[in-house]
Write a structure and sequence with these properties.
9% strand; 50% helix; elongated; 14-stranded parallel sheet
């Protein structure tokens, strides 16, 4: 009788407390055994990792800390029979050493798990043991391995495991810290999954060799890929040129992350710009954080973006080599009607008040950007005040109406003391801009900042202006302006009174202008008649002389 049949024979009679003395583990086994639909993930780890989970990723109810071979076998058995489990994360190879084979034999029977992740592993034995699970679980959508140094043999076994994964796989996340071409086999194994939608290879020491292998793969075998994360690697100019050339040939890529690749220079950023200008590009998000990009590099990117594309998010966090010259170039994107940017992330770049004013001016007529992240820069109260005016220029009702009602987030940091310098009204205006009805946003800002409405400028519209003003106040009454609501009726009456008071003057001016027009028209008519009377005798005399000449 094999291990699984042995567990199957004892499952109905065994007490959970006889499997493990740990109360947390007992609860996990009990919920797995009962097929609890609310118990959808399990983290198999040691006690140290469990503390991390509690603080970061998960609550302790999902943690399982094996005590020995006996409870590991039962854990695998209950996972194998469960139909509601969706996620399993296996932390640390050491924790499974006691009975890895028995645990994997049980897990391989599971068909409900959609995500499996391996963390802090060395070697690759577990990938080999889980081959039946990876091949036969048609619900598996994601495989990941992180914080691991697998070595050459481990990478080979992982590549085989990925190749064997069910064709339901749509996401692969790897951060395994291997170099010297060891990832080439793993990259090649991805060719078995043309349905792959998201590929994360961050922190995997990808260099020129791996990049060229990936460039060969991308155009032909990952046709559904929409997210590619290559951050924190060793990609250089030649590598990025190969990658951009492959991506520019047509694909569905929406998100690209090239952050933390310090070997890319201006030459490489020009290569990235070719992707941005490609008519086949569908890129919507580009992250270039912590790359030491300089003014020349950012200008190359801006030139490409200024010609119009679908990019919605641009992240340039931690690129302090960009100076005011570079930020002026970036600001032109916000002024361009061809730009579709909705999110611009510029934290930790040493931007000061001058830079803040540059972006404030650029955003004056922008109707698309919703988020501008500026935390951990060197902006003072003066710089933040410029954004307050951008969001609500109170110098006149018309200027308030024409203020920016689109920008919703200007990220600043309490840690860097930004919070103390940011005007309170700026925060309230940003909150207001979150409203979907921008007409209501403008109305609220006007009501908040203008207590007296001067009707005199509207008199030139004749009597048609009064109904429009009354209608505006009716709509204003429906806006959630809190304390301002009580004053709307009074403002409305005051505005009507100004019209009534101004109407006699308006009437007299209108009447006199009408009479003056009539007098001018009569004068012109008389002049025409006088001219006709003068011309008639001359015409008769001319005809007479013509006849006599013929005689």
């Amino acid at each position: 009788m094999d291990d699984y049949n042995e567990h199957d024979a004892e499952a109905d009679s065994i007490e959970i407390k006889d499997i493990t003395s740990c109360e947390y583990n007992q609860e996990v086994l009990r919920r797995l055994k009962d097929n609890d639909p609310d118990f959808y993930e399990v983290f198999v780890c040691d006690a140290d990792y469990a503390e991390v989970f509690v603080n970061d990723e998960a609550s302790s109810e999902f943690d399982y800390i094996p005590n020995g071979a006996h409870d590991l076998g039962w854990l695998g058995y209950f996972i194998g029979n469960n139909t509601h489990l969706r996620v399993i994360v296996l932390y640390s190879h050491d924790v499974l050493d006691n009975n890895l084979e028995r645990f994997c034999r049980g897990l391989c029977r599971n068909r409900s798990i959609q995500k499996i992740s391996f963390r802090d592993y060395s070697g690759g034995e577990i990938f080999q043991l889980l081959s039946p699970f990876l091949n036969n679980n048609h619900n598996l959508m994601e495989i990941g391995a992180g914080d691991s140094n697998l070595g050459e043999e481990g990478c080979r076994l992982l590549s085989l495991a990925i190749a064997e994964c069910s064709k339901s796989l749509t996401r692969c996340t790897l951060s395994i810290g291997n170099g010297d071409g060891q990832l080439v086999d793993i990259i090649a194994s991805l060719s078995m999954h043309p349905q792959l939608q998201e590929l994360q290879l961050n922190g995997t020491n990808i260099g020129r060799i791996e990049s060229i292998a990936l460039a060969t793969l991308l155009p032909w075998t990952t046709t559904e890929l929409h997210t590619l994360d290559l951050s924190n690697n060793d990609i250089d100019d030649e590598a990025v040129e190969a990658l951009m050339s492959a991506l520019a040939n047509g694909n569905k890529l929406r998100k690209l992350n090239l952050s933390c690749n310090p070997f890319i220079t201006t030459r490489g950023w020009r290569a990235v710009s070719t992707l941005l200008t490609s008519p086949n590009s569908k890129l919507q998000s580009l992250k270039l954080n912590n790359n030491d990009i300089d003014d020349e590099g950012v200008e190359a990117l801006v030139d490409a973006l200024a010609n119009g594309n679908k990019l919605r998010t641009l992240s340039l966090v931690s690129n302090p080599s960009i100076t005011t010259r570079g930020w002026r170039a970036v600001s032109t994107l916000l002024e361009s009607p061809n730009s579709d940017l909705e999110e611009l992330l510029l934290e930790r770049n040493g931007i000061g008040d001058e830079g803040a004013v540059i972006f404030e001016v650029a955003l004056a007529n922008n109707c698309k950007l919703k988020t501008l992240a500026l935390s951990h820069n060197v902006i003072t109260a003066e710089g933040w005040a410029a954004f307050s005016k951008l969001l609500c220029d109170t110098s006149s009702i018309n200027n308030t109406f024409l203020s920016n009602h689109i920008l919703q987030h200007i990220r600043c940091s309490r840690i860097s003391n930004d919070d103390a310098m940011v005007p309170g009204d700026m925060r309230s205006y940003l909150d207001l801009n979150g409203g979907a009805d921008k007409k209501k946003v403008a109305i609220i800002k006007i009501l908040q900042n203008h207590r007296h409405f001067d009707m005199q400028p509207l008199f030139e519209w004749d009597f048609k202006a009064l109904p429009l003003v009354i209608d505006w106040f009716e709509r204003a009454a429906a806006c959630p302006t809190d304390s301002n609501n009580a004053n709307i009726g009074n403002r409305k009456l005051s505005s009507i009174y100004q019209f009534i008071r101004g109407m006699p003057t308006l009437y007299v001016e209108t009447r006199l202008n009408k009479e003056l027009s009539e007098v001018c028209a009569t004068e012109m008519k008389l002049e025409r008649e006088q001219l006709e009377l003068t011309l008639k005798p001359q015409d008769i005399n001319h005809r007479k002389m013509n006849i006599m000449g013929k005689l």
